[in-house]
Amino acid sequence: MENYTMEGRTYRYYGQEAPLYPFGYGLSYTTFQYRDLVLSPPALPICANLSVSVVLANAGQRDGEEVVQLYLRWEQSSVPVPRWQLVAFRRVALPAGRETKLSFQVTAEQRAVWAQDWRLEPGAITLFAGGQQPDQQTRAPSEVLSTRFTVTGAARPLRGC
């Protein structure tokens, strides 16, 4: 094997072609709603971790479970990166009519890109939170919220943090 890139070989690098069964694919007997996606801090020093919170509500008539997924998309990177990167997920059981606030940490390691070594780069990054991948087309609707944050400082190797 001479070509070690993942382009065209995994859902993260398919380009415009959607995978047949994306991560989180499935049906539910209830409806979930997402709201109040909050990032702290919205401008992040290069080596810092990002705190994320989102409210998940079961708006349906039945108890259910949802797999809450967080993805990152780098707006500009010096090296090829996936369309989006799964950085966290959690299965949440929620009774009908109830809601819960979920908290996550996105670490500096999860924001690193591979450029002959793991590097952290400044710039804008979009974070997605929802019950499916961003831009996923399914028969069972699931919301995906998004917001941007900015990484500040000079690019550096991850081990330099």
Automatic annotation (TrEMBL):
GO annotation, biological process: carbohydrate metabolic process
Catalytic activity as recorded in UniProt: Hydrolysis of terminal, non-reducing beta-D-glucosyl residues with release of beta-D-glucose
SMART domains the record matches: Fn3_like
Membrane-spanning ranges: none
Pfam family of the protein (one): Fn3-like
UniProtKB keywords: Hydrolase
EC number of this enzyme: 3.2.1.21
InterPro entries referenced in this protein's UniProt entry, alphabetically: Cellulose_deg_GH3, Fn3-like, Glyco_hydro_3_C_sf, Ig-like_fold
Superkingdom of the source species: Eukaryota
GO MF terms held by the record: beta-glucosidase activity
Domain Fibronectin type III-like: 66-133
Similarity remark: Belongs to the glycosyl hydrolase 3 family.
Annotated protein name in UniProt: beta-glucosidase
Annotated organism of origin: Trogon melanurus (Black-tailed trogon)
